Amino acid sequence: MKVSRPKPRITGIILDDRFCKGCNLCLHVCPKKLFSRGEKRSRGGYRMPEVLLSGECSGCLLCEMTCPDLALTVVREEK
To answer: Is 60 a domain residue?
Structure first.
């Protein structure tokens, strides 16, 4: 018998402007294509990606795990 856990609901994606260096790796790894090249600049002066549709996030965490600067956090609903 296979027991499946309910998927956690994603409430947002946070990009920390203190750490983001604008590598845009999150754009390339996101299977849902939720990121785009943004105009906002990080504190270091780099162009940060923009989150388009955080409500469509599947919670795979590829973006969070790929970010070399730990600037990205996928926020899950707490139970």
So the answer is: yes
The rounded distance, in Å, linking the Cα atoms of 24 and 5 is 31
H or E stretch including 13?
A: strand 10-15
Taking the model in full, what pTM does it have? 0.82
Please tell me what DSSP assigns to residue 64: H
CATH code assigned at 40: 3.30.70.20
- State how many domains the chain has: 1
Q: What confidence tens digit (pLDDT) does each residue in 26-78 have?
A: 999 999 999 999 999 999 999 999 999 878 899 999 999 999 999 999 998 87
Rounded Cα distance between 54 and 10, Å, is 8
Q: Is residue 40 part of a domain?
A: yes
Structural domain harbouring 64 = 10-76
Distance of alpha carbon 25 from alpha carbon 67, whole angstroms = 7
